[in-house]
Amino acid sequence: ESSGILDSFSVVHVLAYTIIALQQIYLNIQWSPIYWQTAVLTVNSGSKTVDENGKQSTRDYGKTAKAIAGLREQGTNFATPLINTSTTDFTPDADNNRIIFALKGIRGMNDETVRKVIARRPYKNTEDFFDKVAPRTTKEIDEKASEHFSKLGIKVKKTSDEYVEVVKELKDGDNRLSKSQVVTLIKAGALREFGEDPMTSMQKFVRRNTVFKEKLNGQNLSSVIRLGLFDNEKYYKYKLIYQLRAELRKHKFDKENGINHTRVSELKDTLTQYFSPNVIHKQEGEYVYVFMEKFEKEYEKFDEEMKSVLATPEILQEYNIELLLEEWSSVAEGSVESWEMETIVFYSDKHELDYVDTELYNVTHLKQIPKEPVVESTYMYRGTQRENYKLFTIMGTVVDKNKDKDNFTIITPDGVITCKTYKGAFSHYDKQVKKDGKIVDKSWFTRGNRLMVRGYIKDDMFILKAPKDMHTLAKIEYVNRDNGKLSLSLEREY
Length: 494
Description:
Mean pLDDT: 89
Structural class: alpha+beta
Low-confidence stretches: none
Strand content: 15-25%
Largest sheet: 5 strands, mixed, barrel
Helix content: 40-55%
Number of helices: 16
Radius of gyration: 32 Å
């Protein structure tokens, strides 16, 4: 009798599995597999996970990286976020047989930002996107403010309260994205939809946000010095003289005696080289005392010379170029690959480490490493036979870490794997190093850091191990794309 019940139970299971199989066959026939793959990605990446309060959890980038890697091995194609097409979640694109990355999946993009992007669609091109959502430039704000008062028939100064209030409304009133959010969307590749690479889009944005000068005057001297235009041999004396005056004016001025003082340094040499002895009142130890009225009188000559230099077309052109470079370095350092890792934590095409000379560093591709340890030799330890495993070197970019389990996950050029080390080593590389109260070396397991590690694979995990007196881990500081060589750090900075 019990046997009959079990047989009936087995039949029910067979029928259930048969129905599920038929449903899957029907779905594959009626719908592109990309829909199923998108659902799998959404589940495996934890995109829809909610906590006990019903709040959606923060995206687990380690899970996302593994889920994407698993689908890629099955032949699934992926696209970066697309500004006119992406939704809050991963989007199936059956026409192009790919999954489009989610807008909400971009680091730093919250629900409100995504709503602003979607609400202003469609975007015709990069320039149209900037016009609709990017923060207004200083020039645009000035033009609109002037237009506002012109329509009212009022003339106001730019320093007036009325003008300042209108400028504030223009900056805040139309609920645009912030500069950093626009930069993030560019780095994530969202403007690829217009047929241009992120580097080109970024160049357009930086050019748009750089306010070029039409002429220079004395008020621009500090920025001229900051930008290094007086660092050459021809104009370097003007930099020293300007800095000398700035240093003197920082100190308390004794009006009764008409003197000032500053610490002796290279500034003393500047003072004696370019100014007459008449400006010096006296010297005491490390201080030099200066008659400021006499100093200012002699400074006028150099001030006129500097203004003449600023009036030249060459300096104006160089100034604007340096402004452009300064703006670029503030928002756009790195490569397209590093931008993707920074914003969407996956590489759409090439990996940052695809340019490394793997033979030079004896690096093995992840897929070529055996899935279980290979025994090379054995030895006796305290009466027990132990095994020495064959060791391999791999490299990848950190996407996640787990302090509780002493492991971290990396994306290699050909796959994703979790690496494990012992607790002491993990703590050593994970802690922040401070010097004089300032962080001089962040955790090596910070997302985006590139590492070279040595060890073997066991139970789908890369176990860090190295021969005696060798490092299991090194930080990749720089990749020379021309010759494939690396700049490596083997020790923490203390």
